[in-house]
Amino acid sequence: MKSMVTYIAQSLVDKPEAVSVSEVEGNQTTVLELTVAKEDLGKIIGKQGRTAQALRVILNAVSAKTKKRAVLEIIE
Questions:
Q1: For residue 5, which of 39, 75, 48 has the smallest C-alpha distance?
Q2: How confident is the model at residue 7 (pLDDT cuts 50, 70, 90)?
């Protein structure tokens, strides 16, 4: 999941080298914290949050196969 989020985020931004994803594992939930360059934050969030929501939908579909909940947090 972490590599998928990293790949998608790097494809969307102008500075792919500034993209980092950290994974915090819990018992039933995995939290993925996405950090990008400040000027690329709008590209990740998208108009009215649509791009961020699409990332979360893809992440939920992948995590459903592993039967473990995943949450995406975008860190400023």
A1: 75
A2: very high
* pTM of full prediction above 0.90: no
At 33 the pLDDT is 95
Pairing of β 29-35 and β 69-75: parallel
- Helix, coil or strand: residue 28: coil
Pairing of β 29-35 and β 20-25: antiparallel
Q: 11: exposed, middle or buried (C-beta count within 10 Å: 0-12, 13-18, 19+)? A: exposed
Q: How confident is the model at residue 27 (pLDDT cuts 50, 70, 90)?
A: confident
- Give the span between the Cα atoms of 59 and 13, in whole angstroms: 18
